[in-house]
Amino acid sequence: MTKKKPLGEDDDVSPSIVDSSEGSDSEESNEEPYDSDADENYNDNEPIDSGDEGSDEGSDAGFEDQGSDSDEDSDQEEESASDSYSETELKIEPTLTPPPPPSFKNSGSVRSAVHERELEKVFDSAAVGHNQSLLHVDDLSSDDEEGNNTIGRVPLHWYDEYDHIGYDVKGEKVMKGTVGDGEGESGVFDELQDSLSKLNDPNKRFTIYDSLNAKEVTLTPREIEVIRRIQAGAYAHPEHEGNPDYVDYFSSEKEISGINSGRPEPKRNFQGSKIEALMVRRLLKRLKDGKIDMDYLTGKKKDMNPKKEEKDDPFLMWKGGEEDELLYRKGPTHIAAAKAKPPSTAESYNPPEEYIPNAEELEAWDKLDVEDRPYGLVVPKKFKNLRSVGAYQHSLRERFERCLDLYLAPREMKRRLNIDPESLVPQLPKPQDLKPYPSIKCVEFNTPGKPKIRDVTVSGDGQYMCSAAEDGYVRLWEIHTGRLMKSWNIGEMAGENGETATVSSVEWNPVSGRNLILACSGSSVFVLGSGTGGEEDCETTSVLAETCVGKVKGGVVMSEKVQKVVKWNVLKVEERGVSKFSTISGPLVHIKLNTKTTLSSWHSKGDYFVTVSPSAGAAAVLIHQLTKGTTQQPFGKTKGAIGDAKFHPTKPFLFVATQQYVKIYHLLKQTMVKKLLPNCKHLTSISIHSSGDHVICGTLDRKLIWFDLDLSAKPYKTLRYHTKAIRAASFHKSHPLMASCSDDGDVHVFHARVYDDLMRNPLIVPVKILKGHEVVGRLGGLGLVWCRRLPWLITCGADGRIVLWQDL
């Protein structure tokens, strides 16, 4: 007795469809029932009459191959067949078809004709409704099936020599089953019992043995149907349509509508192609130049390039032993030695008189090294003729040094880049395209006595200008006429021991309508009323001054630390102003400090101002409030001498410049936000852009440094155009301009445009050099200021001049 084989290896399973209602008439169903007994009793040796094929036409009525075209009659038969399937109850009677002999594959055999009819039944589209009742999409998936034995995906032939088939999740052996092994008496008995059960139970033939789970599994009608379709070469799922009807979504017929009807032909249909004309012109040009000929145009010749004939030169088929392999090694590239210099005129036997040295020159040459002498070892001499020339005494030495150079001096191939230097320079716009900017000196203000002018400032309306001189005077000028309007000698008030102090800084209140001026002289800071402006401006200035005076007279409580270094005093004002509406003119408030004050600067709102005293230690930077008459000391200690301090235009930041750093402090949080690194020796001045994101610094080592606060703490640009120390640098408030003045007496004007787009870098272009100051005592330009609304620049210097530059 043989071992049981799994179903589907050699047996051909072909279940048939049988009507459950046996007593029904043949008229109720258009299809004959499939005779499974006839298939079982089929004899391969029994001849089959070819006329049987014609007799089966009744059973195959309504069926056709997949993909073939059907006529109207076949369609009606298919509809009737599908209706009969839906009305009657169907069941599957699987039949076991014996394997076909080798002659079955021949097209002319009788067996092949039977198989073709079976295939027609499988591919028949009328049976889709019946097969659809047997199969479902979920039945074709075995993902949810779980085996009893969890031994993993291990080949079972690994355990042929053992009594088990693996280990489960608990590590215990899974023993082999006893069904279907065919060994021993029990196995023979089981096989015999299976054969007998197949005779009694028709479904027993579809029972297979699952060796993995050690159990018998009976195939369901659905699974048998899938196996039958796969063996027949059809799609496993009956619902799948291999060749669906093509749906022409976009019709090829042109729809005629009112929009497209009556439209004339375009002009391009009646003109020649421009591309073809261009190709013809190119071919004619190449034909005239001789690059092509008519044979190439007519196609007789495919290539105009002459074919290279292969040279049949003799060569060695193998290397000989006499060849040196060192010759074929790849060594370093050979570099030719530098040629010796050709003899000069000094080495001639009859040189000109100017080449012959005298006794003094010979002594001087003897003291020099050979490399430093004009002609090296050669001493020019004059001979009558060439026969009189003796042997050269340094010939052996020069040859020896030449050999040393060739032997010891390494040779290197240096590639020189052939680059135009102008191409490396960034392309900047022309200065003529960047106007307006100051270019011409229009007004020169003559200061009495011509003292050194330390600083200048301009009123908000651009009509008046105020200067700080070294003689202790603060002078008020009218810009358009150059007329001196007022002078205040605050140097005597700030001086000590009868000396007059120098006015080092002066600045106008930035708020329009507040005609107040800050001035620093010695160790004092003065608040002056300019006495200018209209009626409303004078009223605003008077209210602000009266508020400040009232607070100071009433006595404001300040900390003991601040009271030790600051003292507020009110001055009597009995002076008449320039404007008829003005009631206040001259010094109003006197703030006395312990040490010398060099600079003062307003806040953008016009109430707070900061003063700088470099030698005051912790009190080097003080913040004052005018409306309350109070002073604050923001720092408990300072590192390094402080030279300048400015407020941020929009944020509560304070910029403090030491000799080598610029520190940014947050006044509300009382923390340092950023520390800028100018990389210089000594800072002289700083200026903040109106946007607050850019800072420029002037230094004593001739550098103008630009910082982009959003970019980095290191300089964005470093400009070195001045020849001496830079004393002042400033941004324009409303125009893209920047200027710097230096001890060389020149004032450099730059176009400095800052873009709102953060992806674009600022544009810095030097546009003009203004020469209007002389150098006096190694000092040139000392200060500058921009007019707030116009591109005008006012500069001052050590020569006592104040110059107005305009854009004419």
Please provide a brief summary of the model:
The protein is an alpha+beta fold.
Characterization of the model:
The chain has 808 residues and is of the alpha+beta class. It has two domains: 1-145 and 189-242, no CATH class; 432-806, YVTN repeat-like/Quinoprotein amine dehydrogenase (Methylamine Dehydrogenase, Chain H, 7 Propeller), CATH 2.130.10. Helix content is 19%, strand content 24%. The chain is built from 15 helices and 37 strands. The strands form eleven sheets. A five-stranded antiparallel sheet has the order 14-15-16-18-17. It has a four-stranded antiparallel sheet with strand order 9-37-36-35, with no helix packed on it. Strands 10-11-12-13 form a four-stranded antiparallel sheet. Strand 32 (737-742) and strand 33 form a beta hairpin. Residues 1-111 and 179-184 have low confidence and may be disordered.
